[in-house]
Each structure stands twice: as structure tokens, then as C-alpha cells.
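Minutes, project huddle
Topic: does the predicted pose make sense with cytidine-5'-monophosphate bound?
PN asked that the exact inputs be recorded in the minutes so nobody has to dig through chat later. Recorded below.
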Amino acid sequence: MSSTGEPHNPVLVALDVRTGAEAVRLARALQADVGGFKVGLQLMMGAGPAMVGAIAELGLPVFADAKLHDIPDTVNKAAHHLGSLGARWVTAHGAGGRAMLEAAREGLAAATAGHDAGILAVTVLTSLDSSQLATVGMGSSVGKQVSRLARLAAEVGVEGVVCSVKELGDVVQVAPDLLRVTPGIRPADSDANDQSRVATPVEAIARGADWIVIGRPITRAKDPAAAAAAIAADVGAA
Ligand code: C5P
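Predicted holo structure (C-alpha cells), as shared on screen:
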């Protein structure tokens, strides 16, 4: 379950909306029925990184999905900044390599001495398949590449990884102690939207996800709080 092993509501809602006001309104409406919030690139680039702090003020963990990938010094400072704003997790691409992941971990730790915070290494984006990996010079299958990056993440000592449900088994096998965060989740009765490899919340947890990232099935529901509560109830009952 959580990094502390405590049972928790595993739903992280992706606040993929246009304005900061919309994000805060949505987060307030959902906070009783979810485990935390994800602030992704759309909100970070639009409303700005201060949104991480504005959402963290509500008291639930905030996942700053910045997908950092740059030279180590730059990534160190960006992670430090997001940590200062109150991020509980910050993402950095595993493909940025060992030194970059170490720099991310150190930058975040220096900013968050008083509270828990950790780097999540992004493994392979769910939008990429093995043939696309080959075109960028990665000749492995998706599963092998995820395993390689999960091993690296564990060696560097980051807190966890982001991977699809399909690769959860690979991560459990090679790096069982890493926290596993999984997008591409769809309740059985909802639209897949543009996600191609989807799984239900219950399947994701059964396969080893600690946290599941869910956006549109909650944020675009007629009653977002009811949609979130129904997902939490399903997962809790399973
Ligand atoms: O609306 P939906 O549930 O598809 O949102 C999923 C969220 O997870 C989005 O914020 C998206 O950026 C993120 N994500 C993803 N696949 C990844 C990494 C992140 O869908 N591999």
C-alpha cells in the first residue's frame, strides 16, 4: 500500500484542467473521497508551479508530475523547487540516467527535510510501444525497458516508479520495494478516452499498484465526488 505500509485510499486524481481556480474547486469537492491529487504539465505550465502549493494546502498528498529530464544540476534545482512548494512526489524520467535521478533525489530531500517526499522514476510512457522505442534507439521490449529502469531506480534509492498496469508484474519482480504508481485506469463502465492499455481500479491494485492515477472518469463525471467515492468503495471492497 503506501510507503509506510498503511492502508489508504489509493486514488490520485489527475487535475488536468485549464485554470487554477477550476483545479482548486475540483480538489475541494473531491478531497473527502480520494487519496491525493496529481498536478501535471497542463496545470503546471498554465496556472504555474505554485498550483502544487495551492493544492497541497488542502492537506492531501500532491504528486507533481513534472516528468523532469535534463542535466543533473538543473533537475536537482527543479526538484528542490517543487519540494519547497509541498510536493509529496515529483516525477523524473528514468531514461535521464543514474546521475540525474540521484540529483533529483538529493534536490527534493534538501527541500523537504521536515516531511516525507520522494522521486518517482517514469519508466516507459504508456503512449509508446516496442516499435516506437526502437525508433529512438531503445531496442528492448517495453517490459525489458521497464525492468531495466526499475532496477536503476531501486539502485539510486528513489521512492518508486510510474508504470502501466501491464508492467506492474515486471516491477514487482525486479524491484519489489519500490512504490508503484499507475495511470491508464478506467472503471469498468467508463470511456477509455485516448488511453489504449487500460485496466480497472481493482485490477490495478490486484496486480500490485500502490496508487492509481485517474483523471477524466472522475473529473468529467456529472458528479465527480460520487464517481470518486464509487471507485474508492470498489477498491476497498476488493
Ligand atoms: O484522464 P486520464 O485518467 O486518462 O488521466 C491520466 C493521467 O495520467 C493524465 O494526467 C496523464 O498525463 C497521466 N499519465 C498517463 N500515462 C502515463 C503517464 C501519465 O496517462 N504513462
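Observations noted during the meeting:
- The radius of gyration is 17 Å.
- The mean pLDDT is 93.
No decisions taken; revisit at the next huddle.
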